[in-house]
Each structure stands twice: as C-alpha cells, then as structure tokens.
Amino acid sequence: MTAPPFALPTVRVVVASAVARAGFTSLLSAAVFAISEGAEVWIVDDSALADLSVLDDAPAVVAVGSVAWANLLPDLLEGGWAALDSGATPAELVAGVLGAAAGLVVLPPTQVPPAIHDDELNFDDLDVSLTPREREVLALLSEGLSNKRAAKTLGVSESTVKFHAQAIYSKLGVQSRAAAVSRGIQLGLVSV
C-alpha cells in the first residue's frame, strides 16, 4: 500500500474490552494509521466514557457505541469529534477519525439535523465583516488545518491563530470550528 499524500493523524484506542481494542487497533493499522499513546485522535467506547475524566487530555475523540454521547462531547472537547453507533462500518470509522482530526463533527446519518436551506436564512440580518487575516484563518480552518499548522502556514504563533478563531466564532455567531466553517460556506466567505 502506498503512503497517502498527506499526514494521517495518530490514533489512541481507549476501550474497555481487550477484544474490541485489538479489533480497532488492527483495523486502524490496516488503514495505515499509527497507533500511539500521545495521539491526535482517541477512539473511545461507552465504558470508557462512563468516567468522563478519561477525556481530559483528548485532543479529538471518536466515540463508538451509543450516540447519546454526542450531546456531551461538544462541552468536553475543543477539537473535533465523532459519535458513531456500534454498527459503524470500517469506512465510517476512518471517516470519523479523519473528520475529528480536522476539527469537524461526524455523526451517523440518522443523527444529522435537517439541512438549513438558503431560503430559510436571512443573510441581510448578518453583519459579517472579517478582517483579511480572519479570512485567511477561516480558509485554513476549512482546509482542516490544526491551529498549530495554521500558525506555521501564516508565520504567526498558535495563540494568534486561536485569537483570530475566537473572533471569527464571535462574528459568525458560532461556538465551534465546524460551525464556523459551515457558516462561512453558507455566507460565501469560504469556498470548497
């Protein structure tokens, strides 16, 4: 198998069952993800989530099991997350890992809220004027870059990127990276 044209996130498997842990590790290794304790994305199950302090150091999480955890994850994590049901396919697991690593939210199709149509949005009420630097940061966020990578690309500190991201969230009336990108696309501030 050839290496992908981009760096894949590292993954840590934090599940109670040794059999499930071995299965996840095998599947993710076959998909060329590196398994590491200091990983960028954690795979957790319902039993691991019974003690929410487990997630204190998790940068991004893929919760496999009950999608009821989807309501808690936004409050626990700053980064991306995925909530997949226990019947998730290997492709859905891989998509969850990649989406969470990119700072996005990944849900099973049955959990995705109905789409908002452009005719339901009142763009005239939105006074959105991003600075040129905020537009650059939003564009990099939409490409899935982490704050650290965006900072390196722009030649600024990670704190500066976080500052601009918070300003973007405020101006767009959102609370997460995924919502900012989505709103930016809706408003024509970001092209995909």
Automatic annotation (TrEMBL):
Keywords carried by this UniProt record: DNA-binding, Signal, Transcription, Transcription regulation
Domain HTH luxR-type: 123-188
Pfam name, any one: GerE
TM regions (residue ranges): none
Highest taxon of source: Bacteria
Any one GO BP annotation for this protein: regulation of DNA-templated transcription
Xref: SUPFAM superfamilies: C-terminal effector domain of the bipartite response regulators (SSF46894)
Gene Ontology terms for molecular function: DNA binding
InterPro entries, A to Z: Sig_transdc_resp-reg_C-effctor, Tscrpt_reg_LuxR_C, WH-like_DNA-bd_sf
Keyword Transcription regulation belongs to the record: yes
Signal peptide bounds: 1-22
SMART domains referenced in this protein's UniProt entry, alphabetically: HTH_LUXR (SM00421)
Protein name, as recorded: DNA-binding response regulator
Lineage of producing organism: Bacteria, Thermotogati, Deinococcota, Deinococci, Deinococcales
